[in-house]
Amino acid sequence: MSIQTSQGAQFARIMSVGGSRGSRVVDNAEMCTMIDSSDEWIQQRTGIKERRWAADGEDAITLGTAAARTAIERAGLQPADIDAVLVSTVSHFMQTPSMAAIIADKLGMPEPAAIDLSAACAGFCYGVGMADSMVRAGSATHVLVLGVEVLSKYTDFTDRSTAFLFGDGAGAVVIGPSDVPAIGPTLWGSDPTQHEVITIDDWREERPHGEGPFIHMEGRQVFKWATTFIAGKAREALDSAGIPPEELDVFIPHQANNRITDSMLRHLKLPASVVVARDIVGMGNSSAASVPLAMEALLDSGDATSGQTALMIGFGAGLVYAGQTVLLP
Ligand code: UT7
């Protein structure tokens, strides 16, 4: 007697993408009423002109549900067709139930596998790698991968070194079977020795009513790691998919800082024809949501088109990273 194992599709692909942004627009002038800074400094250091925050009546669940609904519709599927929901978030106020289970309920999914993952700004690319493996191994046919953040609720407005950075939004993709290779190898890993470089406060600490646990970051240290080590990993994610730089169409790095993106571009030596995501300018850093939101924006604007090759790379608290080369939905 031997145990039967599951068998999946030969290949997986991103079938669709959907996004939802906080509807409150906070420009740098408004930000500078909260912290001692200037529009000029924020734009020069990061590229950010304005960020999107959840307005009254919006939260992680409403944003995540809206993004998921769009992605499922664009895939030509019904919520009941989704076998597994993976939500990457560091903005869920409850340890349990998972945000994945709550969003699955809002969408009326009957019985999907539902799980949250905590890989911060790399979480979406972690989720894509996991969903790709699940579809090819046969443990799911259609996987909804979501990045959902409401980081404005975790922002310490007495800390001017981080307060201007963050935005609120959700991005979703559906990953399913494919006739052709469409998701390259996921290159992922971590530097656990740097686990204290970006943190969210211990939730057990008592706080005044309504005050969230706050994000803390050693910005310069992350900056250095991202522009040296991570840039090399992005190159590996391209090489391992067998795509020469001159055949890459689109580069979608985590939207942490335009200067990090510029530095990665120099390192990667990509041709000038490559379309580069700059969604941070109007969105801020939305952690796990930043890559799918940037992908949706490029497709919606026509700057990128379905079937093009795109290199994605996420990096952040852990410190963790993940990236892969994909065909755009
Ligand atoms: O998403 C997860 C991954 N996160 C990242 O990848 C973030 C990586 N880090 C960064 O993007 C950058 O480090 C920041 C944008 C966070 C900060 O930019 P920076 O160029 O590294 O600034 P800094 O911390 O080195 O500060 C430079 C100067 C300091 O003044 P001195 O010491 O040179 O006199 C700061 O006090 O700028 C000062 N400063 C500010 N000035 C005006 C710090 N924050 C501000 C501010 N406005 N908001």
Helix content: 25-40%
Compute the separation of the termini in Å: 42 Å
Rough outline = globular
Number of distinct beta strands = 14
Query: What is the overall number of helices?
Result: 9
- Structural class from helices and strands? alpha/beta
Strand line-up of the largest beta sheet: 1-7-6-4-5
Strand content: 15-25%
Q: Give the names of the bound compounds.
A: oxa(dethia)-CoA
Query: Spans with pLDDT under 50 lasting ≥5 residues?
Result: none
Order of SSEs, N→C?
EEHHEHEHEHEEEEEHEHEHHEE
The main β sheet shows up as: 5 strands, mixed
- What would the average pLDDT be, to the nearest integer? 96
Instruction: Kindly provide the radius of gyration, computed on alpha-carbon positions and rounded to a whole number of angstroms.
Output: 19 Å
Provide a descriptive summary of the structure in words.
- This protein has 329 residues and is α/β, with parallel strands linked by helices.
- The protein has 9 helices and 14 strands.
- The chain has helices at residues 28-31, 39-46, 60-74, 99-106, 123-137, 219-240, 258-268, 280-283, 290-301, and strands at 11-21, 24-27, 50-53, 84-88, 113-117, 143-150, 168-178, 187-190, 198-200, 215-217, 250-253, 275-276, 309-316, 320-327.
- The strands form 4 sheets. It has a 5-stranded mixed β-sheet, with helices on both faces. Strands 8-14-13-11-12 form a 5-stranded mixed β-sheet, sandwiched between helices.
- Helix 3 packs across helix 4 (99-106) and helix 6 runs parallel beside helix 7.
- It is globular, with a radius of gyration of 19 Å.
- The mean pLDDT is 96.
- Oxa(dethia)-CoA binds next to helix 2 and helix 6.
- Oxa(dethia)-CoA binds at residues 35, 37, 41, 45-46, 121, 160-161, 164, 219-220, 222-223, 226, 256-257, 260, 285, 287, 316.
